[in-house]
């Protein structure tokens, strides 16, 4: 029997200090509500950072997990399994892709994507065509390769020397990309909406221009849809609303509805470069993960649910604008679907963490995208009343922050 209290203080005692979680410890959830150890109730606008697309403890996901748990948990990749094959078929049927590689996280999916891009160019054009272009403020994961492709120096600092052959240009600046791309470029990597970088959407004409430049230079276009995928924008994947198709796409977060899984999707043209033995993942394609993911995909990839994302967003925007009319604290509301970024006014820049703490004290869970932007990525099926109730709590938190700033 474990006798020591299991609380936030234990985190500081036993965990590596790379995270600084909120003081309360959640113990259960249902739908868009969460309860902590003291049975305090919270409305969840964070969604596990865009992971819990169907809320907490969705009965269909629980049923899929329980059913598979009684059958088969793990094999190895010397065998395949039915849930992985069914999920791969459903993903290829629903997207541009012909082939899928399964792994456990977004970082792993991106690692695979970047390796594949280089291997494809090596196979088809030779070793000199190896350069990757990405964008400032982009975020693609925390492995050494993915953090190097990411365009935020703070995440690389202290881990150098980083992998070479990677450069960055400003997001939404087609002229800068045109000046940087060359016949040595093997891939351009981008998020349809920069999530960690401040919830900044790509301009539609920019995306089309990137695709054209990639085609001109025989470079692959890689879309990181870790955060934007699986219904987040009201499309199954964000590229579907942009009029372009990538050559490689990565997916994770909402793909498992809370169960860890990642996937890299690509075409029959590119996939052969990952021939036998070139890449792998011990747990990738795990039957438990794939069974839950299949259930999540079946529920999310429905017109009624996807079309309703825009209606949910409209309520968020309406309520945020009401708060701003009264308190003038937001500079801009941006994003798409239920990936929402709210930039604070200049005088409140740097106060993102204070908003998170104040919201938590009021009973609301939100996120940041840098110190100046509040981020919300709730369940795609969050009840309308939960949105309005949560916004009332956000307003209470905002009043406290504004008062504290005025008194300082």
TrEMBL record:
Subcellular compartments: Cytoplasm
UniProt keyword annotation of Metal-binding present: no
Binding-site list for N(2)-acetyl-L-ornithine: 142, 281
Metabolic or biological pathway: Amino-acid biosynthesis; L-arginine biosynthesis; N(2)-acetyl-L-ornithine from L-glutamate: step 4/4
A single GO cellular-component term on record: cytoplasm
Record-linked Gene3D superfamilies: Aspartate Aminotransferase, domain 1, Type I PLP-dependent aspartate aminotransferase-like (Major domain)
Enzyme class at the top of the EC tree: transferase
Cofactor(s) listed in the protein's UniProt record: pyridoxal 5'-phosphate
Reaction(s) the record says it catalyses: N(2)-acetyl-L-ornithine + 2-oxoglutarate = N-acetyl-L-glutamate 5-semialdehyde + L-glutamate
GO biological process, one term: L-arginine biosynthetic process
Sites bearing N6-(pyridoxal phosphate)lysine, chain numbering: 253
This enzyme's EC code(s): 2.6.1.11
Binding annotation for pyridoxal 5'-phosphate: 106-107, 139, 224-227, 282
Subunit structure as annotated in this protein's UniProt entry: Homodimer.
Family recorded in the similarity comment: Belongs to the class-III pyridoxal-phosphate-dependent aminotransferase family. ArgD subfamily.
Protein name, per record: Acetylornithine aminotransferase
Phylogenetic placement of the source organism: Bacteria, Pseudomonadati, Pseudomonadota, Gammaproteobacteria, Oceanospirillales
């Amino acid at each position: 029997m474990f006798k020591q209290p299991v609380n936030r203080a234990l985190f500081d005692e036993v965990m590596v200090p790379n995270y600084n979680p909120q003081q309360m410890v959640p113990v259960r959830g249902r739908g868009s509500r969460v309860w902590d150890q003291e049975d305090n109730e919270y409305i969840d606008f964070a969604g596990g950072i865009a992971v819990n697309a169907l809320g907490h403890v969705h009965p269909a996901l629980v049923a899929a997990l329980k059913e598979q748990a009684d059958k088969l948990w793990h094999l190895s990749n010397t065998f395949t399994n039915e849930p992985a094959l069914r999920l791969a078929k459903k993903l290829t049927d629903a997207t541009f892709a012909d082939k899928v590689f399964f792994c456990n996280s977004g970082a792993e999916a991106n690692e695979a994507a970047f390796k594949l891009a280089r291997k494809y160019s090596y196979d088809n054009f030779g070793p000199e065509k190896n350069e990757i272009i990405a964008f400032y403020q982009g975020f693609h994961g925390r492995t050494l390769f993915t953090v190097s492709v990411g365009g935020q120096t703070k995440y690389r600092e202290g881990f150098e020397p980083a992998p070479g052959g990677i450069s960055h240009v400003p997001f939404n600046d087609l002229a800068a990309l045109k000046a940087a791309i060359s016949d040595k470029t093997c891939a351009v990597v981008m998020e349809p909406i920069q999530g960690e970088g401040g919830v900044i959407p790509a301009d539609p004409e920019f995306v089309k221009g990137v695709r054209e430049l990639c085609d001109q230079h025989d470079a692959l276009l890689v879309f990181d849809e870790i955060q934007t995928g699986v219904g987040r924008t009201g499309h199954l994947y964000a590229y579907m609303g942009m009029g372009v198709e990538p050559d490689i796409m990565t997916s994770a977060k909402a793909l498992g509805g809370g169960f860890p899984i990642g996937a890299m999707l690509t075409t029959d043209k590119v996939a052969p470069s990952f021939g036998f033995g070139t890449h792998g993942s011990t747990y990738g394609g795990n039957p438990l993960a794939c069974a839950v993911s299949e259930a999540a995909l079946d529920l999310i990839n429905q017109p009624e649910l996807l079309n309703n994302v825009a209606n949910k967003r409209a309520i968020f925007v309406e309520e945020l604008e009401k708060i701003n009319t009264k308190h003038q604290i937001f500079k801009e509301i941006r994003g798409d679907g239920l990936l929402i970024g709210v930039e604070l006014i200049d005088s409140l820049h740097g106060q993102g963490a204070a908003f998170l703490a104040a919201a938590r004290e009021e009973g609301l869970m939100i996120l940041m995208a840098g110190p100046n932007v509040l981020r919300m990525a709730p369940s795609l099926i969050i009840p309308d009343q939960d949105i309005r109730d949560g916004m009332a709590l956000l307003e209470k938190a905002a009043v406290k922050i504004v008062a504290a700033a005025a008194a300082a």
